[in-house]
Amino acid sequence: MSGNAYDELKERGFVAQVSDEDAVRKILEAERITFYVGFDSTATSLHAGSLVPIMAMAHLRRAGHRAVAVVGSGTTMVGDPSGKTEMRQMLDEATIRAQGQAILIQLARYLHFDGASAIAVDNADWLLPLHYIPFLRDIGRHFSVNRMLAAEAYKLRLEKGLSFIEFNYQILQAYDYLTLYRQYHCTLQMGGDDQWGNILAGVDLIRRVEGGTAHALTFPLLTTASGAKMGKTAQGAVWLDAAQFSPYDFYQYWINCDDRDVGRFLRIFTLLPLAEIRRLEALKDSGINEAKRILAFEATKITHGELEAEKARQAAAAAFGTAGTPGPVGGLFSQGDVTALPTTAVPRSRLEAGISPAGLFTEVGLTPSRKEAKRMIEQGGLYVNDKRIDSAERLLTLADLGPDGGLLLKAGKKKIHRVIAAG
């Protein structure tokens, strides 16, 4: 990272609010600081939206600052009400701990925990042993109920009901900051913009208890140009776990982004130099496809490694006749390797007997229902091995297997799946 680390974060689009811009810019330039971001253990995997804080941490770490990733097994047992209209599902401790370990393994791929430039901790280590009454006396007395209720996260929930356990979340997150300030002299907490009130509560607690100075920085809550939530598709979340969302599908998520999002996504979700990003976002018309291919490859490489990114690129080339950019149907086997495509094995006996195309497309997830598949057949939108399916009554058999021994199913311009015969 060249120049001031804060200014680069800002130019890349990571800054929504900051407690004292001049002070944060100064400390990031003048000294090596310790900063932290928390990740609650609410699932077995993070998703593409989680890459915003992860990439910000990676940039600051590359600039020489020390990253602390907090896996929130302790706070997950309470549940963060921020941005939620209803109370989160209460999970048992064993489940939360297991999910926390899975998230920790994911974070290590990006942050490379070495105990020096990047550290991982679990807030259950200091939150679970707390004695409730002493904690309320020592920490709770510094919090104003009136000020807490004025926080946006709580105001949104008051109409539908805010549980007492959730009401404690801000105090616990502030205590996390205080603990990390004491243990690692952590002076900057970063998080999503919905965490602004919680982070400021920690800044205030450090001032009240330790007389120290700490800072807050939040990231914008991203939506795509079409207004969709970042990291979401019609099929669900874009998970960072390859078992839940394949590297090929991950690659396709980025390459199929809206043209208007390409420059913004290159800045946030890749480590490319800003000068190169400016070149790419200046491309027009068909040239924008080059920028999309680079975005997809770089984002996939960071999450799944260069080998998987290259496999995804080759599979996309095999599927679309280019490096994955949607275009006219054609050239499905012209280049590249189809083996990295999402693949389902079906018994050979089923193909011998014949399979309904509407049933198969629905079975592999390319269409939501047989009815929708039949509608797309009528409109000429379903293909097998580059050939349009012209009738819902037609059966797919062994005779339809392509040169690679499989069926390449395609729904519309973007959705593709490979079926192979087994047994």
Short description:
The protein is of the alpha/beta class. It is built from 20 helices and 13 strands.
Characterization of this structure:
This protein is of the alpha/beta class and 423 residues long. The chain folds into three domains: 5-219, HUPs (Rossmann fold, 3-Layer(aba) Sandwich); 246-326, Tyrosyl-Transfer RNA Synthetase (Orthogonal Bundle), CATH 1.10.240; 342-422, Structural Genomics Hypothetical 15.5 Kd Protein In mrcA-pckA Intergenic Region, Chain A, CATH 3.10.290.10. The protein has helices spanning 5-12, 21-30, 51-62, 73-76, 93-111, 124-127, 132-138, 145-150, 152-158, 164-167, 169-184, 196-210, 247-255, 262-269, 274-281, 288-304, 306-320, 348-353, 357-363, 370-378; strands spanning 17-18, 34-40, 66-72, 118-122, 186-192, 215-219, 232-233, 236-237, 343-347, 382-384, 387-388, 406-411, 415-422. Strands 1-6-5-2-3-4 form a six-stranded mixed β-sheet, with helices on both faces. The protein has a five-stranded mixed β-sheet with strand order 9-13-12-10-11. A hairpin with a 2-residue loop joins strand 10 and strand 11 (387-388). Helix 13 (247-255) runs antiparallel to helix 16 and helix 14 (262-269) runs antiparallel to helix 15. It is elongated. The model is unreliable at 323-335 (pLDDT under 50).
